Amino acid sequence: MSGNPGDLVPIPDVAVRLGTAFAAAGHQLYLVGGPVRDALMGRPVSDLDFTTDAHPDQVLAIVSPLASGVWTTGIEFGTIGAQIHGQPCEITTFRADRYDRVSRNPIVAFGDNIADDLRRRDFTMNAMAVSVHDRAFVDPFGGLVDLAKGVLRTPATPAESFGDDPLRMLRAARFVSQLGVSLAPEVEAAISAMAPEIGRITAERVQAELNKLLAGAHPRRGLEVLVDTGLADVVLPELPALRMAADEHGQHKDVYAHTLQVLDQAIGLEQRGAASSEPTGSGGAEPDLVLRWAALLHDIGKPETRRFVDSGQGARAVTFHHHEVVGARMAKARLKALKFSKDMTEDISRLVFLHLRFYGYGRGEWTDSAVRRYVTDAGPLLERLHKLVRSDTTTRNRRKAAMLAATYDALEERIAALREQEELDSIRPDLDGTEIMAILGIPPGPLVGRAYQHLLALRMENGPLSHEQAVAELRRWHSEQQ
Q1: CATH architecture of 163-236
Q2: Closest CA to 374 of 385, 387, 390, 362
Q3: Kind of pairing between the strands at 137-138 and 129-131
Q4: Strand spans (E) along 119-266
Q5: Kind and range of the H or E run holding 266
Q6: Please, which residues bridge with residue 31 across strands?
Q7: pLDDT digit string (tens) for 27-51?
Q8: Are 153 and 146 in contact (CB under 8 A)?
Q9: What tens digit of pLDDT does each residue of 115-136 get?
Q10: Least CB-packed of 56, 258, 289, 343 within 10 Å?
Q11: What is d(CA 134, CA 185) in angstroms, rounded to the nearest whole number?
Q12: CA–CA gap between residue 142 and residue 256 (Å, rounded)
């Protein structure tokens, strides 16, 4: 690349203002890391990260007159945050840290030059900087060349870099997903050797990296890095456990490969759905992490439930009976361990539990009651369940795939038809609790709840009843309880 690469990095007006203020105070200021990398890749740049020779108290004095808000939560690590003309900015003093290699916390030491600061960063493509004052491009570790090659390397040795901060190993897999890069051989070897060290990282930070990986443009590649290096054995052991050897008759497909294909297909449906007018929460323009996690975890119950049975005449078949039940339990346990929110944990495990329900539909033998229950059990997850079930077809038999797709089309058509007839998405009994108590002349208590559940089951089975029919049924049921 000829000329100054720094000329290819746009310097926003906010950065120019900051650069002028720092220069007036006799200090350097560099745009650094992700914003520089993303600008060179033609990716959008949101938050701005800067590094400077000014110490935190000096940064505060320079920034405060320009900022509408300043935060100092990272000041002990040399970082000052500021909101300047609506733009979030982080300014960090040059660092020359050492790590205690036990708690992973840095022993903070401020540096006096940009090269030493860049050396302590995670990867060479994140160790590039541009002077805000004169656009001088600083790249002491060949990050630009690595970026052009799409190769992830570390400024220091990989062992030193990952020893300082094991989370960088997960970040490597995340960048493979987000940026489409590949690992340098020495980086992959170091991660494989040091993978157990990731156990020192808190669950919250692991969860954040896994979410970013799954939300990336190439999550399959990132997941393959996790499995191939052994990182997944520590942070997501259910995934490598899917690499079950087929029996000698090849009676089942590679569940690991199947899972990655299901994830790919779910993302494809998610992205197509984003262009439609689907309701909020069913995908939208942002990556649907609930759907992606459900696709990733939908078959994790298979290793625990695999059984080989005699299918007659000496042949054997493989079964995974109730793997959706076991898988839902396992998914909930893993997501809790990773400190996911209660709502997200429940939604993902619910999708895992329901993903096989459709296969009882057969050739349309379900009654209207069964269709209502399918919709009611899925609730607000129904659109996601549609995508997950359709994604779960990975057979190479085109006839079988077409038949399954047509059958699911028919189910969706029946759901749509029932929606036109009744409020399918919010099925309630024809009488509420207050009405039940008034009709039967009973106070609040367990009997009201049992009556409510009876009327709900009746509503699911038969569809809406008139008020007179509901009252008559309630009185009939109540008389049988005497």
Answers
A1: Orthogonal Bundle (1.10)
A2: 385
A3: antiparallel
A4: 129-131, 137-138, 151-152, 182-183
A5: helix 255-274
A6: 50, 130
A7: 999 999 999 999 999 888 888 999 9
A8: yes
A9: 999 999 999 999 999 999 889 9
A10: 343
A11: 36
A12: 36
Contact indicator for 177, 218 with CB cutoff of 8 Å:
yes
CB 110 within 8 A of CB 94: yes
Return the ∠ at Cα 89 (arms to 198 and 121), rounded to 5°. 35
The string over 146-155, giving b where at least 16 C-beta atoms fall within 10 Å of a residue's C-beta and e elsewhere, is bbeeebbbbb
Q: Which CATH class is domain 245-426?
A: mainly alpha
Size of the chain, expressed as the number of residues it contains: 482
Residue 358 CB partners (closer than 8 Å, separation 6+): 374, 389, 408, 411
Reduced to 3 states, what is the DSSP secondary structure of residue 271? helix
Tokens linked to 161: 């870099």
- Please classify residue 189 by burial: count the beta carbons closer than 10 Å to its beta carbon, then call 0-12 exposed, 13-18 middle and 19+ buried: middle
Q: What's the CA gap between 342 and 323, in Å, rounded? A: 22
Domain definitions of the chain by residue range: 1-149, 163-236, 245-426, 433-480
Q: What is the dihedral of CA 147, 152, 155, 156, to 10 degrees?
A: -170
CATH 3.30.460.10 holds for 1-149: yes
Dihedral class, residue 179 (left if φ above 0, else alpha if ψ from -120 to 50, else beta): alpha
At residue 279, the pLDDT reads 41
Q: Name the residue type at position 258.
A: H
The amino acid sitting at 468 is E
Output the six-digit token pair for 242: 């899917």
Q: Where are the beta strands (DSSP E) in 101-173?
A: 106-107, 129-131, 137-138, 151-152
Q: What share of the chain is helix, strand, coil (3-state, %, to 5)?
A: 55, 10, 35
Following CA atoms 202, 207, 208, 214 in sequence, which dihedral angle do they give, to the nearest 10 degrees? 150
What is the crossing angle of helices 398-421 and 382-391, to 10°? 170
Q: The whole model's pTM is what? A: 0.82
